[in-house]
Write a structure and sequence with these properties.
The protein is of the alpha+beta class. It folds into 2 domains: about 200 residues, Aminopeptidase (3-Layer(aba) Sandwich), CATH 3.40.630.30; about 170 residues, 3-Layer(aba) Sandwich (Aminopeptidase). Strand 2 and strand 3 form a beta hairpin. The radius of gyration is 22 Å and the shape is globular.
Length: about 400
């Protein structure tokens, strides 16, 4: 077994497979697929440019009490392509003068959380633990991981812990005492599924006329698309086109912390079977879009999509995907859809509401940390007009 030495009640594992079975059993966390070895191994397999580590914390009796996923990614300041560009240029100028930033080398960012998914999917704390104390232990443990020169041949520039819900801030704000800076980016868009909806028609009936007409129009425009399930048996036929469609979407993002490797889909389908969903949309046998998502307990989490913008408006490709996510959730009797970040306004028009998520960041060294605070303080979610598509009846949330 290849693990780092135990430091301050923490063990560090470079692969999921190195974690002993008894730890998974004692943590009792694998019902949440984001903390399940089948998911974690699938995500790590094809991301050669990301270093994955897994931290397990123990109590004084050497019983596991917490688990955290860690990814070390390259972040290029030049990748920022939104309203923050002017701030980035200022930081780069100051950084060069102080010999703290290089044009050639990226920042190495250690992310404690899930690089590819919005939400609290990177840290698991066992019931009955002092969560504030555990968060501080995790912050210390990732620093110890970086300082272990025997396992790292490069320098980590900064530490990021993401994404904490509002209800968790009284716990996660402990990080502010360790010189972390907190900020919010685009909200996570969540949609509750009414327990009275038995099918998609019930969902449509719950909408105000304006939004119901919009939904039906989108379904009419997209009627010419041939919807297919992408499975283990046919995914190789579509991977190349899926990669192109994914990049056409990801390239429009303000910045991406990590680029998702589409080849991971094959392993996700193999490992998670029916709990991982990929649908393709064909026009004249040409793939013009796809959606992906994971059923995690009673939630449907929308993952990456790919769109050919050449056909998007005429055939309402993206709108069709959003309605198909809703249809899947209703059909599978789920409680909630996690639509993720981006495109907040159109997601709100189908019934999603914003959930603020807080990220904590600090540079390893004090002077760059003060400089980067200028950047972090300027980060604000992009404003959007929240839509309210449902009639006056309050949605009945499943308990």
């Amino acid at each position: 077994m290849n693990i780092c030495k135990k430091i301050q009640n923490a063990n560090y594992y470079p692969t999921v497979e190195d974690i002993p079975e008894h730890i998974w059993k004692e943590l009792n966390c694998t019902n949440d697929l984001y903390f399940n070895p089948n998911y974690l191994s699938a995500i790590s397999k094809y991301h050669e440019n990301i270093d994955f580590w897994y931290v397990v914390l123990f109590d004084d009796h050497y019983k596991p009490i917490a688990f955290s996923t860690v990814q070390i990614v390259n972040f290029y300041l030049d990748s920022v392509q939104n309203e923050l560009q002017s701030i980035v240029e200022f930081i780069k100028r100051i950084g060069r003068k102080l010999h703290l930033l290089s044009d050639q080398k990226p920042l190495k960012i250690l992310t404690c959380g899930n690089t590819f998914v919005s939400g609290e999917h990177g840290i698991f704390i066992k019931e009955g633990q002092d969560k504030q104390k555990v968060i501080k232990q995790i912050a210390k443990s990732v620093l110890q991981l970086v300082n272990d020169e025997g396992h790292f041949d490069y320098k980590v520039s900064g530490f990021m812990l993401k994404d904490f819900e509002h209800e968790s801030l009284f716990i996660s704000d402990e990080l502010l005492g360790y010189n972390y800076h907190s900020f919010n980016v685009e909200p996570n868009m969540l949609m509750q599924i009414d327990q009275d909806w038995s099918n998609f028609d019930d969902y449509l009936a719950a909408m105000k006329t304006k939004f119901r007409v919009k939904a039906k129009k989108a379904m009419e425009l997209s009627a010419g698309l041939n919807e297919i399930d992408i499975t283990e048996s046919n995914i190789d036929l579509y991977l190349k086109d899926m990669e192109k469609l994914y990049k056409s979407v990801s390239s429009k993002a303000g910045f991406n912390l990590g680029e998702f490797n589409i080849r991971s889909y094959a392993v996700l389908k193999e490992n998670l079977q029916r709990d991982y969903i990929i649908k393709g949309y064909l026009l004249n046998n040409k793939l013009v879009g796809f959606l992906s998502g994971m059923i995690n307990q009673e939630n449907l989490d929308a993952h990456f999509v790919g769109i050919s913008y050449q056909y998007n408006r005429k055939y309402a490709v993206y709108q069709r995907m959003l309605y198909d996510y809703i249809n899947i959730a209703i059909t599978r009797n789920l409680k909630q859809i996690n639509f993720g970040r981006t495109a907040s306004e159109i997601k709100s028009s189908v019934g999603a509401e914003p959930q603020d998520l807080t990220i904590y960041f600090r540079h390893k060294n004090s002077i760059p940390n003060k400089i980067l605070k200028c950047f972090i303080d300027k980060i604000q979610p992009t404003p959007f007009q929240q839509k309210y598509p449902f009639k006056a009846k309050t949605l009945v949330k499943q308990s």
